[in-house]
Design brief:
Blueprint (H helix, E strand, L loop, with lengths): L1 E2 L12 E5 L13 H13 L3 E6 L11 H13 L4 E3 L5 E4 L2 E4 H4 L3 E7 L1 E3 L3 E3 L1 H6 L5 H8 L5 E2 L9 H5 L5 E3 L4 E3 L9 H5 L5 E2 L4 H17 L5 E7 L2 E2 L11 E3 L3 E5 L2 H15 L6 H15 L1
Parallel strand pairs: 2-3, 2-7, 3-4, 7-14
Antiparallel strand pairs: 1-17, 5-6, 8-9, 10-13, 11-12, 14-17, 15-16
Bound molecules: iron/sulfur cluster (2 copies).
Length: 300
């Protein structure tokens, strides 16, 4: 259901409530605001719950790569007045082949508080992304990304630098030999595949589908750990890219409001449908459809 004010959303949770949220990269201004989080906190506390914010460190090098660095960024981004837990490398539990933050799954209830926006791999980043990638440790994040990392045929490279310019992760360097991909930095978005017209970088057959299924399977491990779970997606500041970026690109769609939903798949489907109605060119909807198809195999 769509609301214009976050304070109007009914939330029925109990006990220690983990609020899974992305608090934004350093300099990012479009993540879920601390004002909205404050309203949710007040509501939960009034109903006797003990809420806290939780997230995991990022895979790539940057200020949020360590719990200490992420806590600093969270403060800078307005979350200094809240209890915040950033999972440490040793604080993960194995579930269905993924390592999931203990701080999340040990809570009594889970509130999946997501920002709906574009995403360089999945086209749309919302609840499934927040859970699947967002609750996993670095090893599992890497596992999820791996299938869509491209294949290289360096002898075909014409050293035009186009892929280097388009890579959102700075993972490509063009040397004497040709374009070289740093596997550790690459997140498998396939932007370079679309850019290279020389056949020097190619998609792994079925890689995107496999990666999308892993996103959903990891999210399902988190969901299955809870009897009490609620979803809110903030459809404001709907940017081209995700909150992992200091500069997440253009605003692709006017603000829509706050969505509540019963499942991760349904709230993501509804969010994408609302965005599409506002601007049919806001997102790469054909990639979203592949993501949705793989998610349905896992959730339905
Ligand atoms: S776009 Fe293709 S040809 Fe150009 S540098 Fe990259 S790999 Fe080489
Ligand atoms: S798939 Fe290509 S463009 Fe995307 S992160 Fe990897 S190297 Fe960069």
């Amino acid at each position: 259901m769509l609301y214009q004010k976050i304070s109007d959303i009914p939330i029925k949770l109990e006990g220690r409530v983990a609020i899974k949220i992305h608090m934004g990269e350093r300099g990012n201004k479009t993540h879920v605001s601390s004002e909205d989080v404050g309203i949710v906190f007040e509501r939960l506390r009034k109903s006797g719950c003990k809420p806290f914010l939780v997230d995991t460190t990022c895979l790539y090098q940057g200020p949020r790569n360590t719990p200490e660095g992420y806590l600093k960024v969270a403060k800078e981004n307005g979350f200094d007045g809240f209890p915040v837990v950033i999972a440490r490398d040793e604080d993960y539990v194995e579930k269905g082949g993924f390592k999931i933050a203990r701080a999340v799954v040990d809570a009594d209830s889970l509130l999946v508080l997501s920002h709906g926006k574009g995403h360089v791999i999945t086209a749309y980043g919302g609840a499934i992304k927040n859970l699947g990638m967002g609750c996993s440790n670095k090893e599992s994040k890497s596992l999820i990304h791996s299938p869509s990392k491209p294949l290289q045929f360096i002898s075909k490279c014409k050293k035009c630098h186009a892929c280097e310019k388009v890579c959102p992760c700075g993972a490509i360097r063009v040397t004497e030999k040709g374009a070289e991909i740093d596997e550790k930095r690459c997140v498998g978005c396939e932007c370079c595949v679309e850019t290279c017209s020389s056949g020097a970088i190619k998609a792994r057959p079925g890689g995107m589908e496999k990666s999308f299924r892993l996103f959903s399977l990891a999210a399902k491990q988190v969901i299955d750990s809870f009897e009490r779970i609620a979803y809110i997606t903030v459809l404001k500041n709907i940017t081209q890219y995700c909150d992992c970026r200091s500069n997440p690109g253009k605003i692709m769609c006017p603000d829509i409001g706050y969505l509540s939903g019963k499942t991760a798949l349904k709230i993501d489907q509804e969010a994408v449908s609302l965005i599409r109605k506002k601007n049919p060119r806001a997102l790469d909807f054909s990639t979203w459809e592949i993501f949705e198809r793989e998610a349905r195999k896992v959730f339905l």
